[in-house]
Amino acid sequence: MVRRQVNVMNFVDREHELRFLNERWGNKGFEFIPIYGRRRIGKTELVKQFLKDKAAIYYLATSGTKKENIEAFKVCAKGVVDVDFLVDDWEPVLKYISENADERIVIVIDEFPYLIESQKGMSSIFQRIIDLHLENKNLFLILLGSSVGMMYREVLAYKAPLYGRRTGQINLKAMSFSNCVKLLDKSVCECVEIYGVCDGVPSYLNMFRKKEGFFRLLRENVINKESVLAEEPVFLLRQEFREPTVYMTILSSIASGHTKLGEIIEFCGLKDKTGIMPYIYKLEYCGYVERELPVVSGRKGVYKLNDFFMMFWFRFIKPNISLSDEEILAKIKKEYNTYLGFVFEDVSKEFLREKRPFGFSKIGRQWGRIPRPAVGETSYEIDIVALNENKKEIGFYECKWQELSVKSALRILEDLQVKSKYVEWKGDERKERFGLIAKKIKGEGKEALREMGFDVWDLDDF
Q: Per-residue confidence at 376, pLDDT binned at 50, 70, 90?
């Protein structure tokens, strides 16, 4: 039996998913694990890492015909079980492998949606194969898919042919910021700049690992109209949706600051929410959009992009597509620090989850109306509010992608204390904390502010 030897470079994170797969590998009997997530998120690299030193058949499906895919699969299977003599049909091929492998093996079919497109009823065919030939065998089946919608419809959903056959599943998400720092091996400040473009998508991050400056790499990999990522969002959306125009308009709306439902409807030129909600629901399921509510007493939510690459592209690239590369880069340089303010809020939330200044169970943004407002002020917003319901503790935090003096930091904290009065939660019983997370606190400012009782951090603490 030939064991698969895999050399995986710069593999970071995914400990939880690898542990899950290896625990299931240790079980006796049949396992069927679908793994899905957007393209370039690292599904294939995760599986290659899992396959190290295991007897395995790995096949990357293509958009070719049924015959082409089966013939190519049979070639990949040769090192484990010779199936060349069998007819070109999935059922006899997989049945023979399950009956003639002399030890536990893994069968991986990468980009399973291509097989679905190559043959009508493919998911039902795999349902029959599992039910009749595989479920009582010592075999580990993994199906990978980058089309989240198709994997849901054909494999995961209640009405899907393969529903009820899986023994687990992995929805592979973007890497955390802290793991991005490990992969990039650059300063935290540089990593925030890169994270604002790449999010936690390993393939994108690898393009920014070179030693050149950020803006040079940005031009080379994203802005240049012939670059790999120049039209990536278009490819991603076409992979999920037959007609991506409305989806792109919704994403453009949110990226440009039109985040309330009524604003999105108006931006898209529609009459009411009936026409737009099916599109928004699909974007939510695919992980591109999220409805955000205030962390305290929130009912009226807003929509946010859940993907910094999409946010960057729809904010800076799509609206300026007719400009030259130099003009686009100039606009980005002018506005990028402001944009990073939003990115830094997300990074700061992750930092607080890891730092745990107190035992909060809920964290998020807070906004609302000011009761009896002064002229010109009707609403407030706080970057991060964290809650411990049991101990009635509440933490208020502002995030600033700026270098701050002690005086400036103190002014921000004093304003935060004023805004905290507008948050109705537990009344006089609550115990309050106030803090600031900044790009840099100058001099000995951090220690001085900490001595005053504030939670204060900057990038040196990350």
A: confident
Q: Domain check: are 332 and 316 in the same one?
A: yes
Partners of residue 433 on adjacent β-strands: 395
Mean per-residue pLDDT, 325-339: 97
pLDDT of amino acid 71: 96
Q: How far is CA 86 from CA 102, 115, 147, 155, 183, in A?
A: 19, 19, 31, 27, 45
Counting every residue written for the chain, the total comes to 462
- Whole-structure pTM value: 0.91
State pLDDT tens for residues 424-462.
Answer: 999 999 999 999 999 999 999 999 999 999 999 999 999
Mark whether 323 and 374 lie in a shared domain.
no
Residues 122 and 27 reside in one and the same domain = yes
Q: Which amino acid is at 1?
A: M
| Side-chain-side CA neighbours of residue 167 (13 Å) | 19
> How many whole angstroms from its chain centre is CA 160?
24
Q: Which residues are within 8 A (CB) of 93 and not within 5 positions of it... i.e. 6 or more apart?
A: 70, 73, 74, 77, 83, 86
Residue owning tokens 């409807």 = 265
Inter-residue contact 52 to 5 (CB < 8 Å): yes
- Average pLDDT value for residue range 387-406: 97
Total structural domains in the chain?
A: 3
Buried b / exposed e over 369-390, threshold 16 CB at 10 Å, is eeeeeeeeeeebebbbbbbbee
Q: Is residue 350 assigned to a domain?
A: no
